[in-house]
Amino acid sequence: MIDFHSHVLPGIDDGSDSVDTSLGMLDMWRAQKIDCICATPHFYAEHNTPRRFIRNRNGAYEELLMAARNEKGYPKILLGAEVRFFDGISNVSTLDSLCLEGTNLLLLEMPFTRWTDRMLREVGEIRRRGIIPVAAHLERYLDFNSKSMIKHFMDLDILIQCNAGFFLNKRTSRKALSMLKDRRIHFIGSDAHNLSSRAPNMGDALQLILHKLGAGSIEYLLRMEELIDVDY
Ligand SMILES: [Fe+2]
Predict the structure, then answer these.
(1) How far does residue 82's CA lie from ligand 1's centre (Å)?
(2) From the CA of 7, how far away is ligand 1's center (Å)?
(3) Staple 133 to which of 15, 53, 153, 158, CB 3.0 to 4.6 Å?
């Protein structure tokens, strides 16, 4: 199983603050039997360029690989980005370089404001370029956008990622399970940042899903993973 969203790479964003923290996070994923994790550091266009971001990200990845070289059974790491939406994003010629390694999937973090029709048109433009936006942690936007806006967004022929915590939080668990049952969630990620307050928690979410919805939903998530051509 793949964890689609994480901040495991050391010293590159507000996620893991050191190689030791990253190794501790990998220990947790290994114990949860997660086979592959997507390393998706934040990309903010106002502070970075795709080229510089990729250079820094790949450097942090190499550093982690070197530190983990004697470990067995760690999950495979795929490189990606969590790209914050900005005006003009659909026109950036190098946008595809921020897609998840080996795919045309772009983890897209929408603004934490009420969305506008213009924003949604721009997401549709990204899709028309042949890049598939995957909306990061959709659950965070449900409270301040209307149901019709959320529906309009989800109808853009995009994919939806939700966090494991959406399933594990008692207040939101029913909603998460119902959305997954309706196949309105396509990927789950821990969005893990550290070893404590935002630790890898995919294993617990998958157990809950198996218990509440049965093996069919796990099989469905595994079928979605076929969009990511990875051997693990
Ligand atoms: Fe994130």
Answers:
(1) 6
(2) 6
(3) 158
